[in-house]
Structures are given as structure tokens and as C-alpha cells.
Design a protein that fits this description.
This protein has 17 helices and 20 strands. With 672 residues, it is of the alpha+beta class. Among the domains are: 138 residues, no CATH class; 131 residues, no CATH class. The strands form 6 sheets. A 6-stranded mixed beta sheet has the order 3-4-5-6-7-8, sandwiched between helices. The longest helix has 71 residues. The N terminus is likely disordered. Keywords: Coiled coil.
Length: 672
């Protein structure tokens, strides 16, 4: 209910819009609106529709007069009665409330009461009825929507309950299936003693060790995750199972490589098997003298083993097996049985674990080691310093001390780096085919081993004051089978600038000139035996790096002209007269400096044309095989080079040992 003050009104009760004298008296009229009050109306802030402007007012001297006709006022009330078709926020009732406020403001003027006609009163009733009806409809719709939402929620709950029942039934079946599979795997994993006449037979001691629980401190191998490390001939298998003493993954210490695939793999296709094949033969390449090399392809559910027999050169792909069988095979065969593991480390334990293998020599093992602190102290000590524990070596059980070392405190080593190269003779593992045409080394005419020769040669050039383009020996063992040298750097790369390559060639030539001046022939001048170090004493430019000629294991002293030597150099270092067979004595020859200069000539050629030499450099063992294809190709190369325009004068310079003429050849080493 709302109370509205509208000004003066006559005494008779003729309704709120009855015309009368403008100033009779002041009255209060009460209007009944169903369910609403003016207070609530005035508090609404909902949007309203635009109404037609009210009739204009004309002020007369004595009394207000209607400025418009009845038709105009009727049309205005008719538009007021029309309900909007909007939603809950823009309904007919909302517009009614807004229009009602405007109407009250107009009725407060005395001039408007005389316009209260019967037709507008009827229209006004229609407005009120329409607003009431719209509100009731809105209330009914809201109640119905709430009931619908409640019913939908009840339906969702019912459907979800049905789905849960189905899911629980499915999971029961899955649990039963997994339980059955676990029982099957447990039965399959039961250790069964293989019969003695089967291929899976193991020694009783090994079998007992597998059946028993591992004791504290037992360690069969070192396992490394190598998925992101391309350490194996530019391959990166997922796991590397290495020798138990290995600290880092290293191709020479690999026992087995493992490649994993997703457990959803239904079968191993040719691509997956080819991937395992590549890993297997990269391991064979890194360990050429190992009898059996193994690689594993596994998805945990499916597992296959590839094994290469180096003696028969046959690679076998075994049938699929369970993971329990695979685990038993690796632990009981690959890690224990002779012939499956890599050769034992030839180095003593007190110099630590190798950081990286260097090269793949046939008769020696070479690796980079961090220089121990004890050795660093010995190198810095004076000449009269007492013998340290490092020099005494380790003591073997029941024997005298072994691996006794002699430290060489050289004046050429101005600063001791962090890393050294250690070379060790590998006995009873690598064939010693040192002489041409398959003849063994003659101990009467040649040294015992290449390692002992290199130790003696490095000690000799150190006393003679060798230049910095030759290596420095740090120590050697008392048995002359192991030595440590510096520097340790990477071989020459084809990514070097032409100016850097020219400087390296000049450095190697200077090293050869110095050696020849002291009656020493290197006999193994090739890119594998040249390393580059940063030249700290120079600015950026051509002198930014320095070339160092290493590996003096084949170097010989030619001051004794009566002593002949067997050739033991590389493919590109073999003198032409040896391949022609024009030797003074069968199987031996007298080296001359011209042999090194001819090999240096091939350094230039092979760096300018690297691609044709890629495969040729792998055939060093066949260059002395009479009438072999590699020997014929090499002989043809030299015969064509010595008469080819441009190269002929440099070949003649090598024969004549004309160093100044050879230096001019480096001017042809140029590219963008």
C-alpha cells in the first residue's frame, strides 16, 4: 500500500483522479497495489524503458487548462500499459514501476487533476493488472526452474551411481587379471637349475651366488643413464652397464648396452632392432678384441638379446624372454662368465678412473686421466726429495711392489695442466704383428715394445731440449710399459680456418726439422698424431693455436746406419719403396727424413681433399699386403702425384729434404 499527497481535492470521494477546484483543500489518498509498496518501488534500480513525453502544460492566469486532447493522453496511457518482453531484469513490472514514479511526479501538479478521465482510469487499471500478472508469472517460472534443476541433479546422481557400478565391476576384472599375471610372473621367475648339457648351464659357484641374497658391498656393475649422452660412436643408448670400477660411461668399459621401448610396444619392428644392432656393433668397434658383445632391447614385457661373437663374426638375435630371464642372464652370464666382459683395466687404481679413452690403438690402451695431487706434488718437488708413495706404487699380495714410477721433472713443463694422457701396453690381449708381410717383431733388430721405445725417445728429446711442438713426458713405470704425457687435446678438426691449418702444418714441419737435426725419424706423421692447443702467448689471429706432433712410439734413431727397422707406421706414412718391395733386406728398411716429409706432404693433400681419404685411412693394416687393392691404390696415388703439375715439385722437395720449398706448399691451403 502507498500513500501519495496530491494537493487539494473535493469533499466527495470520487476517486483519486476526480476533477475539482484547484485549491479546495489538501487531502491524502490511499491506493492499493497488490503485493507491492511504493517504498519497494522507489528502491528498485532496474533499467526502465523510454516513455513518451508527458503533455505540455500551459499556465493561465486563473486556472490550469489541458494543453493536449483526450486522444493524446489516451495514447500515452496506452503505451504505459504495454509490458516489455524482457527477462527477469527487464520485465513489464519493472517498466511499470519506473513509469509509475514519473506519473506520481506529474500528478503532484494541480494542473493535472482535471485530466483524470474515465478512459485513462481504465488504462491505469490495465497497467496495474498487467504488472501483477507478469510478477505472478515470474514467480511461477522461478519456482518451476528450481524444480527442474532439482530433478536434473537427481537424474545426474542416479546416472553417476549406475556408472560407478559399471566401473567397479570393470576394475574387479582388471584386478583379477593383474593378480593372475603377477602369479604367472612369480612362477616364471622361480629359479630353475639348468642342466649341464644345456647352453644355459652355469658353474655351480655362479649359480649359488645368484640364488643367495647379495651381501653388503657386492657390486656386479656400474649402471649409467646415457639417453642424452652420445658417448658411443655418436650413439646414445638408454643404459650403459659398465665395469663395476667405472666412474663414468666409457666405450672401453661397456659390458652391455640396453635400449628401452614403451611397455605398450606390441612387437619390435625392424627400426627398433636396427637401433639395437647399431649400438651392438658400435660396442664391438670400441672393443675389437672382446669375444662376446651383448646388447638388449626391452619393453619390460618383451625382451630380446643380441650377441655378437667376434671369433666367428656372427650376430645372433635370441627369442623373446621375460624380464626375469633377462635379469638372470645379465647377472649370471654377461657380468660373470669369461669372454663377455671388457678386458680388465690395465691401469693401476691409484691414478684414478679414466676420464676418456683416446684413440683405438691395437697394442696399447690410451686414456685421459686427471693428474693426482700426489703426482703433482712429486713434479713440483726438488731433485733430492724423498720417494713418495705415488712413486713407490701399490703392493700386491705375496709379491714385491709393482707399478713403481719414475717422475720426470722436466724444465719444458712450465705449468702442469689438470689432465694427462696415459698409455699402457696391453699384454696377452692384442696381437703384436709389427713387421711387414705378417712377420713378427725381430727382438734382435728392433725394440721390445712400442711403449718402451716411446719412453726412451721422450726422455731423450727432453734432455736434448725439444721444442714446444713435441710432447712432454711426466712419468713412466719401472717396467717401461706405462707412461704419462702432456698435453691432452683434441685432434685437428676440419672446422679450423685455413690460416690455423697453415700454422699447424708449419708447427709440425718445425718439429720434424728438429727431430731430423738430432738423427730421429718420426715414421708416423698423420693427422691422428697431431693435436692443437691454445697458444697462450699470442693474440687472436693465425697464432691463436699451436700444432703438437705426438706419439713417438715408432720414432727411431738413424745415427746407426747399420741397424734396420721394421715398418710399424700408419697407412699414409708407408714409404713408396716399401710398397714397391725394393728393400735392402727382406722385412726391414732404413728410415730417412724424406719419409717423414713425404708423409707431411700427404697431410696437406688429405686436409684439402678429406672425403676420399675417409675410407682409405681405415686400411693401414693392408698397405704392406703384396698386390692388395689398398696397396695398389696407394702406389698409383704416389706415381700420379710425382708427375702431376704443381705437386711434382713438392714431391721432389720432399725427396730432396728441401724444407723451404715445402713451406711454400702451405700457401695452397686456402678456402673461404
Amino acid at each position: 500500500m502507498c500513500t501519495v499527497a496530491t494537493g487539494s481535492q473535493p469533499d466527495h470521494d470520487s476517486g483519486p483522479f476526480e476533477a475539482g477546484t484547484p485549491h479546495d483543500r489538501t487531502y491524502t489518498s490511499t491506493y492499493h497495489f497488490p503485493h507491492y509498496s511504493v517504498d519497494s518501488v522507489q528502491q528498485l534500480t532496474l533499467p526502465t524503458r523510454t516513455l513518451p513525453p508527458p503533455p505540455e502544460e500551459r499556465v493561465r492566469p486563473h486556472k490550469a487548462a489541458m494543453p493536449v486532447t483526450d486522444d493524446v493522453l489516451t495514447a500515452w496511457f496506452h503505451e504505459l500499459s504495454i509490458a516489455d518482453d524482457g527477462g527477469a531484469d527487464d520485465s513489464g513490472y519493472t517498466s511499470f514501476c519506473a513509469d509509475l514514479r514519473r506519473l506520481f511526479a506529474m500528478l503532484n501538479h494541480d494542473a493535472m487533476r482535471e485530466f483524470a478521465l474515465q478512459e485513462p482510469k481504465r488504462l491505469w487499471k490495465a497497467v496495474v493488472d498487467n504488472a501483477t500478472r507478469n510478477h505472478e508469472i515470474e514467480i511461477a517460472n522461478a519456482t518451476r526452474n528450481h524444480e527442474i534443476a532439482t530433478k536434473n541433479y537427481e537424474i545426474e546422481i542416479t546416472n553417476a551411481a549406475k556408472n560407478y557400478e559399471i566401473e567397479i565391476a570393470r576394475l574387479r576384472e582388471r584386478v583379477a587379471s593383474l593378480t593372475k599375471e603377477a602369479e604367472r610372473l612369480q612362477k616364471a621367475a622361480t629359479e630353475k637349475i639348468p642342466a649341464e648339457d644345456t647352453p644355459h648351464f652355469m658353474a655351480p659357484a655362479v649359480w649359488q651366488a645368484l640364488r643367495g641374497a647379495p651381501t653388503a658391498g657386492d657390486k656386479l656393475a656400474s649402471v649409467f643413464q646415457t639417453h642424452d649422452h652420445r658417448y658411443l660412436d655418436n650413439y646414445a643408448p638408454d643404459l650403459a652397464i659398465c665395469h663395476k670400477g667405472s666412474l663414468v660411461e666409457e666405450p672401453g668399459s661397456i659390458v652391455c648396452v640396453v635400449e628401452f621401448k614403451p611397455t605398450s610396444t606390441e612387437r619390435f619392428d625392424s627400426h627398433m632392432l636396427g637401433q639395437a644392432w647399431d649400438y651392438l656393433h658400435s660396442t664391438v668397434k670400441a672393443q675389437p678384441h672382446r669375444r662376446n658383445v651383448v646388447a638388449v632391447l626391452s619393453s619390460l614385457k618383451k625382451n630380446v638379446v643380441l650377441m655378437h661373437d667376434s671369433q666367428t663374426q656372427v650376430t645372433t638375435l635370441y627369442r623373446e624372454c621375460t624380464f626375469a630371464d633377462l635379469d638372470r642372464y645379465i647377472r649370471g652370464v654377461v657380468l660373470v662368465q669369461p669372454g663377455y666382459g671388457p678386458p680388465p683395466s690395465p691401469w693401476s687404481a691409484d691414478i684414478g678412473a679414466p676420464m676418456q679413452r683416446l684413440g683405438k690403438p691395437r697394442r696399447t690402451a690410451v686414456a685421459a686421466f686427471k693428474i693426482p695431487d700426489a703426482m703433482r706434488d712429486d713434479l713440483a718437488a726438488g731433485a733430492n726429495a724423498p720417494v713418495s708413495d705415488f712413486c713407490k706404487g701399490q703392493k700386491s699380495k705375496g709379491r714385491r711392489r709393482t707399478q713403481e714410477r719414475f717422475v720426470n721433472r722436466s724444465n719444458r713443463a712450465t705449468s702442469i695442466p689438470e689432465v694427462m694422457a696415459v698409455k699402457r701396453l696391453v699384454q696377452n690381449a692384442y696381437p703384436l704383428v709389427l713387421a711387414p708381410r705378417g712377420r713378427s717383431l725381430n727382438p734382435v733388430t728392433d725394440s721390445t715394445t712400442g711403449v718402451s721405445d716411446e719412453i726412451n725417445m721422450l726422455l731423450k728429446i727432453d734432455k736434448l731440449g725439444a721444442p714446444t711442438t713435441l710432447p712432454v713426458i711426466l712419468y713412466h713405470t719401472a717396467d717401461f710399459q706405462e707412461l704419462g704425457t702432456i698435453p691432452v687435446e683434441k685432434p685437428v678438426s676440419h672446422d679450423l680456418k685455413a690460416s690455423a691449418v697453415r700454422q699447424v702444418l708449419h708447427d709440425v714441419l718445425d718439429a720434424l726439422v728438429w727431430l731430423h737435426s738430432h738423427k730421429i725419424v718420426h715414421r708416423d706423421v698423420r693427422w691422428d698424431n697431431i693435436v692443437c692447443v691454445e697458444n697462450a702467448g699470442s693474440d687472436d689471429g693465425p697464432r691463436a693455436i699451436k700444432g703438437i706432433l705426438i706419439d713417438l712410439g715408432e720414432a727411431v734413431d738413424i745415427s746407426d746406419r747399420l741397424r734396420a727397422h721394421c715398418f710399424r707406421g700408419g697407412y699414409t706414412c708407408c714409404p713408396l719403396r716399401l710398397m714397391h718391395g725394393t728393400l735392402e733386406t727382406e722385412g726391414a728398411y732404413h728410415p730417412v727424413p724424406a719419409d717423414d716429409y713425404a708423409a707431411w706432404l700427404l697431410l696437406v693433400n688429405s686436409f684439402m681433399y678429406p672425403k676420399p681419404w675417409m675410407t682409405a685411412l681405415r686400411a693401414s693394416g693392408k698397405v704392406l699386403s703384396k698386390d692388395s687393392t689398398k696397396q695398389k691404390k696407394m702406389v698409383k696415388f704416389w706415381e700420379e702425384l710425382m708427375v702431376m703439375d704443381g705437386w711434382d715439385r713438392f714431391y721432389q722437395a720432399a725427396v730432396d729434404e728441401s724444407v723451404d720449398e715445402l713451406r711454400r706448399l702451405t700457401g695452397f691451403v686456402h678456402w673461404v
